[in-house]
Amino acid sequence: MAPGAMSRWTTSLSEARPVSYWLDDPGRPAPEPALTGPVTCDLLVVGGGYSGLWTALIAKERDPSRDVVLVEGREVGWAASGRNGGFCAASLTHGLANGLARWPGEIHTLERLGARNLDAIEETLARHSIDCDFERTGEIDVATEPYQAEELRSWYEEIAARGLADGIEFLDAHAVREQVDSPTFLAGLHDRRGVAMLNPARLAWGLKRACLALGVRVYEHTPALTLKRYGAGMAVRTPYGAVRARRVALGTNVFPSLVRRVRPYTVPVYDYALMTEPLTDAQLASVGWRNRQGLGDSANQFHYFRLSADNRILWGGYDAVYPYGGRVRAEYDDRPETYARLAGHFFTCFPQLEGVRFTHAWGGAIDTCSRFSAFFGTAHAGRVAYAAGYTGLGVGATRFGAEVMLDLLAGERTERTELQMVRSKPLPFPPEPFAWSGIALTKWALARADAHQGRRNLWLRTMDRLGLGFDS
User: For residue 179, is it within any domain?
Assistant: First the structure.
């Protein structure tokens, strides 16, 4: 990248606020008071992101008489649930390719359950009047290199032969640029129904409001400090009080689990995004983005991008930063060198938008596991359930995870709990310094593959054989 181009593009960041655009909302609700003193309940939900909110809401919908308490260490939606791109996908497996590679025997069931889950999300939003700019726009995976175009066509032919291409269409260069016009786009795979766009923070706030309306007791600024057995149930200590519950559901995801043996299965990886100012009608017309689909490119180090309700472009991805030791810290949320890189990539993709400025630039931690899709389990003789490891595709899948946790806590055998995906675990990450070294080597190898026609070196091929390959 030429120094002059870098200077020109970074100028676009001069007024960008280092805060999530979604959370920078004057309609942001006030937090609920912190828990003080002891309380008892039937079900305690720990975590006020999507995972916890869906669990509390569905628990009350299944049994309105159930006494449900939710505790959140900060404010509802403040972490990944308020910082993501707002891609709400039907896939439960972090994409069809990942699911097919890991669970080929049940992929049709997983796809059917995922489609039903996305429909249920849309129905819930309507039932509870949750306004989060939900749009069933679909998504296009685009190729920006000739080899990627060939791979997309081959992949489409494979899934079509397996009966998995319903609602999916291959687009050549002309067809994809009719949808969204970038000189870098060479082909695309258009999933017309399997992805919706939404405002992620407003989804979290809307779920909170729906929980409160159904009688869930929500306590914010109330971190759960310890988890121990207490008689026939469990006890959780908080800074100013305690909760005794018959059952506990953990939706803490990227944060250290209260069940210590679960902690090695996830690591935090930091992702970053930019948001432009609203596009003018002329700017929007120059891109031709009439159908408002979400987009993602096909590289290993990929970008995701979409339009907001007020016609801004969110542009995120590419850098995935793992901090040594796997610590989640606020100082990692802001990374100017990544913002500059993303700005350069944005204007390479859309040169017709040169002069557009970014108003927000932010980051956040994703709970990543070695199989790149959620895992589930119980502890304390079935009194505690957990779901984690969504790896950046949890906006929709967390609702499914909530149903799994509630099934497990009820001791029920359901179609969900019988899935191999639910009954198996990913491989845990090794301790430091091996985790950092392995992740750094994998990132280097993925970048090298992107620069060499997608060819995966010995390290990546070994990871593939171990079930640790990542190409989504």
Answer: no
- The arithmetic mean of pLDDT across residues 124-134, rounded, is 98
Pair (221, 244) in one structural domain: yes
pTM for this predicted structure: 0.95
> What's the token pair of residue 413?
């055998």
Together in a domain, 200 and 222: yes
Strand 37-46 vs strand 68-71: parallel, antiparallel, or unpaired? parallel
Beta strands in 173-219 (DSSP E): 187-191, 195-197, 217-219
Amino acid sitting at position 14: S
The answer to whether residues 423 and 441 belong to one domain is no
Specify if 416 maps to a domain: yes
φ, ψ for residue 377 (rounded to 5)?
180, 180
Residue 96, φ and ψ in degrees, nearest 5? -65, -40
Q: What is the residue-averaged pLDDT of the chain?
A: 94
| Assigned domain for 174 exists | no
Residue 284: both structure tokens together? 């929007």
What tens digit of pLDDT does each residue of 80-107 get? 999 999 999 999 999 999 999 999 999 9
Domain that holds residue 449: 434-465
Burial of 214 (0-12, 13-18, 19+ CB in 10 A): middle
For residues 415 and 446, membership in a common domain is answered with no
Q: At what angle do helices 3-10 and 336-349 cross, to 10 degrees?
A: 100
What single-letter DSSP state applies at residue 86?
-
- Reported as a single tens digit per residue, the pLDDT across 277-316 is 999 999 999 999 989 999 999 887 889 999 999 999 999 9
Same domain for 44 and 117, yes or no, is: yes
Identify the H or E element spanning 109.
helix 107-127
